[in-house]
Write a structure and sequence with these properties.
The protein is an alpha+beta fold and 721 residues long. It contains 16 helices and 24 strands. Among the domains are: 303 residues, CHASE domain (Beta-Lactamase, 2-Layer Sandwich); 183 residues, Nucleotide cyclase, GGDEF domain (Alpha-Beta Plaits, 2-Layer Sandwich). Strands 15, 16, 17, 18, 19, 20, 21 and 24 form an 8-stranded mixed sheet that branches.
Length: 721
């Protein structure tokens, strides 16, 4: 049994370890799931915000590209309209005296009013007509300009009347910029441009310009003498298409304001084939690049970065948002982290696309532009929120709450298991005190077999139903038959349930005695060598009638607790305690060679404990003990309140030894005396004088137990009762 108990304990320890590991794995799994799901939640929400941001950015890019091209094309269209206006008005006119074409000596009446609408439509800063002159036509054109100046401009204008010694007027002729005495001033243009390979002796002065008031100082200025303008004009004259200058910083702009000039060719005639493709002048529209980027987006969209790059390598960065445009500076200043979202927009103007990228032998390649669009942190932050963090926190809180619930549930389950285990241990202790271990195991086995032998509910119902089926009755007795049949069915069902012991776990003695039914084996064994002791309180009945019930039970509990301690110490099996009688035995359930000596030592110690208890709970009661040795039959008497019982003549004889004994003394039978002699303690025996008349035994010789030396044992005693 010890090996089996050890095996059971080992299994319990292993099961507890498995449960502990499983619990840890479950918690770790929940934590990992929390981290994984939380990470997915954060990533999904962040990706959603990122997708919203990129979607809005791409929509905005399409709008910017579309509006940018539209604005640029509008400038070309405005210049084309004005160019056609000049050609249609002056293309077929000839000089009446020379019968030659009037070009380049032409002046558009009411220029400012006609230019104002086109200037607004093109979002330009200035629009001008610039005749193309060479050294052969220069003198005549300068004379023509001097004559027209008094008619075009007010007599008080600085273009007609010199307001200072260095001021330039129309009558002074075509000028350019030069250095005189370390000062950058207006000088008479020499009529030769060294930078132009194709048109070195060509002059392109500004003649009519709007708005006039802020741009009068530019009239008569030779645009072809400035390198950036010269390159665009050469391309325009050579390819007869509109062109753009490289990026300029105009002298009138104090702050950084990247600008360019659109040159559109003015043709000599629409009808004369000889002069149809002859470029006699240009329409120029001066504009700043920020004007092209202004008001391209709704006011709620902010923070887009536009990088303007020219084919010559010039680069400027703008920030656009809503109706505002800000020049961030020269160079590419966008955030490199948004390179993957770069969008390129070609800024070529209508009419030049077919020439872009073709190497020219006499002039430079066309100046082309690209607009590189990027988002910014500011734009992205408008689509970022705390939602990913909030949703992630909610997911984590849910998991933590789940883990907490699991731990609480696990704690409650463990608490319940501990409570159940404690109750089970207490119940086992009670059972162990009532039944020896091998008998306890057998009765448990018996109940398990009975439980497994119970037929299923369907079989019992079918069995009862089969027994209740009868012949069909006529219609008149159907209702009566149904009522009585249901009653019979219920009765037989409950009887069948009772038959199989379902109503109670107790043993069905009646079923075990029925003829033809195999009897279930009793739980009992025969023990040939057993010593039985009866201990009785002399005078207990009379004393108990004079005491309060609580005092009686207090004394008995105190006394029997002491006896139980002594029995556990000596390995004596306590059979039962009935009233004032305490019954104990040795030699069962485990055989014991010195069973008589052990039960005697137990009895001697009980007499001592009686005195101890009497000192704490004073009374006049005295203990009387009788012992007999012999064979007994022991087993569990099944039925209601099953109990462990001893049967046989040995029990009766031990009872006679107690009843014929004397208070404070231990009386043993001849059989017990013989067993004590075998154990070598015959000196404990004192033959009783005279024979004792025992009921059913006649006159028998008995002995008193009087050990010459005290038995040295140490058994604990309760401090209080």
């Amino acid at each position: 049994m010890a090996a089996a108990d050890k095996h059971t304990r080992d299994l319990e320890i292993k099961n507890k370890e498995r449960v502990r590991i499983l619990r840890i794995l479950l918690v770790v799994t929940l934590v990992v799931a929390m981290v994984f799901v939380g990470g997915l939640t954060y990533r999904f929400m962040s990706a959603k915000e990122r997708n919203d941001f990129e979607s809005q950015y791409k929509d905005s890019v399409v709008k910017v590209a579309k509006e940018f091209h539209l604005t640029l094309d509008m400038k070309v269209l405005s210049a084309s309209v004005f160019s056609n206006l000049y050609t249609s008005r002056f293309g077929d006119l000839v000089n009446t005296s020379t019968l030659a074409s009037v070009w380049p000596n032409v002046t558009m009446p009411d220029f400012a009013n006609q230019a104002s609408g086109l200037l607004a439509m093109s979002k330009g800063r200035a629009i001008s007509f610039n005749p193309i002159i060479n050294n052969e036509t220069r003198m005549s054109w300068e004379t023509y300009a001097k004559e027209q100046a008094t008619q075009i401009y007010n007599s008080s204008s600085q273009l007609v009347k010199r307001s200072c010694a260095t001021c330039w007027i129309v009558a002074d002729g075509i000028f350019t910029k030069g250095i005189v005495n370390d000062s950058f001033v207006n000088i008479y243009d020499p009529g030769y441009t060294s930078g132009s390979k194709k048109y070195p002796d060509t002059l392109v002065p500004i003649w009519q310009i709007a708005p006039q008031k802020t741009n009068e100082g530019g009239v008569m200025f030779n645009l072809h003498n400035e390198p950036k303008r010269q390159r665009a004009l050469d391309d325009m004259m050579h390819y007869k298409v509109p062109t753009l200058t490289d990026i300029l910083q105009l002298v009138q702009d104090e702050k950084l304001c990247p600008s360019s000039i659109l040159f559109y060719p003015v043709f000599a005639s629409f009808h004369n084939e000889a002069t149809t493709n002859v470029v006699t002048g240009s329409i120029s529209i001066v504009f700043s690049w920020d004007a092209l980027l202004n008001k391209l987006l709704p006011d709620y969209i902010e923070g887009m970065i536009c990088v303007l790059k020219s084919s010559s390598g010039q680069t400027f960065t703008y920030r656009i948002g809503g109706y505002e445009v800000e020049v961030l500076g020269e160079g590419d200043l966008h955030d490199p982290s948004y390179n993957n979202l770069e969008h390129r927009v070609d800024a070529n103007i209508t009419g030049t696309n077919s020439f872009v990228g073709i190497g020219l032998s006499e002039v430079d390649n066309f100046i082309t532009f690209q607009l590189l669009i990027y988002p910014s942190k500011e734009l992205e932050s408008a689509y970022k929120s705390s939602c990913p963090v909030i949703y992630t926190v909610i997911v984590i809180v849910i998991f933590l709450f789940t883990i907490a619930l699991f731990l609480l549930y696990d704690y409650l389950v463990q608490f319940r298991q501990r409570f159940t285990a404690r109750a089970s241990r207490e119940s086992n202790q009670i059972v162990e005190s009532l039944y020896p271990s091998q008998f306890r195991d057998r009765i448990f086995h018996f109940h398990t077999q009975r439980k497994n032998s119970i037929p299923p509910m369907e079989e019992r119902i079918q069995l009862v139903a089969d027994n209740t089926n009868g012949n069909n009755d006529d219609d008149k007795n159907k209702r009566k038959r149904r009522n009585s049949g249901m009653s019979t069915f219920k009765s037989r069902f409950f009887n069948a349930t009772k038959k199989y012991g379902i109503d109670s776990p107790d043993f069905d003695v009646g079923a075990n005695m029925k003829p033809g039914v195999p009897a279930e084996a009793p739980i009992a064994d025969f023990f040939p060598n057993v010593s039985v002791a009866f201990a009785d309180l002399a005078g207990f009945t009379a004393w108990a009638t004079t005491q309060a019930p609580n005092d009686v039970f207090l004394f008995l509990e105190a006394l029997y607790w002491e006896f139980d301690q002594v029995a556990e110490f000596f390995g004596v099996f306590k059979v039962c305690a009935v009233g004032d009688c305490y019954l104990a035995a040795t030699g069962l359930p485990e055989p014991m060679a010195d069973h008589a000596k052990v039960i005697t030592e137990f009895s001697i110690e009980c007499l001592k404990k009686m005195e101890v208890v009497r000192e704490r709970i004073p009374n006049n009661l005295q203990l009387r003990i009788g012992i007999h040795s012999g064979p007994v039959t022991a087993g569990i008497l099944r039925g209601r309140k099953s109990r462990f019982e001893l049967y046989g003549d040995t029990i009766n004889t031990a009872s006679r030894m107690e009843s014929t004994g004397a208070p404070t003394r231990i009386q043993v039978s001849k059989n017990t005396a013989n067993e004590l002699m075998i154990c070598g303690v015959e000196d404990w025996l004192l033959p009783r004088e005279g024979l004792v008349s025992a009921k059913g035994k006649g006159n028998v010789q008995t002995y008193w137990i009087v050990p010459e030396e005290p038995i040295n044992v140490t058994i604990g005693t309760r401090d209080s009762f």
